[in-house]
Amino acid sequence: MRGRGTDHGETDHGAHDPNTNDPKTNRNLPINNPLRGDIAAAVTAVRASKPLAQSLTNFVTINLVANAQLAVGGAAAMHYSAEEAHALNQGASKATYINMGTLLEEFRDQYPAAARDTVAAGLPWVLDPVGAGAGELRTAILRSFVDCPPAIVRCNASEAIALAGIWGLDVPGAGRAHAGVESSDEVEAAVPAAHAIARFTGGVVSVSGAVDLVTDGSRDFYLPGGSVWLTKITGAGCSLGGVSATYACVAEPLVAALAAALHYNRAADTAERVANGPASFQTAFIDALWNTSADEIAQSTIFI
Ligand SMILES: Nc1ncnc2c1ncn2[C@@H]1O[C@H](COP(=O)(O)OP(=O)(O)OP(=O)(O)O)[C@@H](O)[C@H]1O
Ligand SMILES: Cc1ncsc1CCO
Ligand SMILES: [Mg+2]
């Protein structure tokens, strides 16, 4: 984080030194690994085809989610209706994003129905279990998803641990109460929960933090870099979920989750160089999502 005393005395967790942040190994995914080609192809495909991922997302960050989807080359449509989800699943939308941030009582039925409809249409959906563990309504909706699991769970470390508990998965710390949208855990603490969730869903879990983890339950990918400024704007994580859904329109879940997280980290690296504070960072970040090349994203350091 640069700028005039901008960290307010907090520790700078900017993940720029792989030796201090790498949780497991320092082995970079080989530069000729086919996954890198798949990631570059996903970035190019989104920019070429402008896919629509529909979103049922929270009121706090809905605008950033839509703008981030547009900035990576996708399209956006926000609503809170299972009936509308069904209509969009019949053609226009290629993936669905469901974010649990700000719930209303009517979402108790609408969210599970939208998730079920997406799965029935043969399309992937992405869950951001914001605030998992807080409140009966949130817990009931999250529990309902066990019958129609998401292709990608995108969350912070505390939410991964809480979600594992709600889904009855046997991992350390699962089931404890969590009452907030910020993570109080490091990514490393969420590794068992992320593995358990991915094995349960048969999909992918993307846990954000100083070094992000993307896992399909058997393969782990650690993604360093990005900027601590992302934690000073609300909705960096929410919009990463929306962008993961955009990528899920054109790529399998593992590639989509990797492309989205890497795109975020490289754009944040760029934005940090010109930011003077959270607001200018957000503006520069959206610009950088638009401008970062497919090759730069695909050639990122990926620890395995
Ligand atoms: N300490 C950090 N250093 C660098 N990047 C970070 C750090 N913490 C989070 N990030 C990045 O910020 C983005 C959002 O992750 P974060 O963990 O803050 O999500 P979140 O808690 O769900 O956010 P929100 O709920 O505000 O949307 C990700 O791209 C992640 O890589
Ligand atoms: C601050 C906040 N409150 C509910 S959702 C949200 C956005 C970050 O998850
Ligand atoms: Mg969040």
Quick structural overview:
The protein is an alpha/beta fold. About 45% of the residues lie in helices and about 10% in strands.
State the end-to-end CA separation.
Answer: 26 Å
SSE string, helix = H, strand = E? HHEHEHEHEHEHHEEEHHHH
Per CATH, the class reads Alpha Beta
Strand residue percentage = 5-15%
Which percent bin holds the helix content?
Answer: 40-55%
Query: What is the number of helical segments per DSSP (H or I, 4+ residues)?
Result: 12
Please tell me about this protein's structure.
This protein has 304 residues and is of the alpha/beta class. It has a single domain (19-298), classed as UDP-N-acetylmuramoyl-L-alanine:D-glutamate ligase. Helix content is 45%, strand content 12%. The chain contains twelve helices and eight strands. It has helices spanning 18-21, 34-49, 62-71, 82-89, 107-120, 136-144, 157-166, 191-201, 236-248, 253-274, 278-291, 294-298; strands at residues 52-56, 75-78, 93-99, 125-128, 152-156, 204-208, 212-215, 220-223. β7 (212-215) and β8 (220-223) form a beta hairpin. The longest helix is centred in the C-terminal third of the chain and has 22 residues, at 253-274. The protein is globular and about 40 Å long. The chain starts with 17 loop residues before the first helix and ends in a 6-residue tail after the last helix. 2-(4-methyl-thiazol-5-yl)-ethanol binds at residues 58, 60-61, 101-102, 130, 181, 234-235, 238.
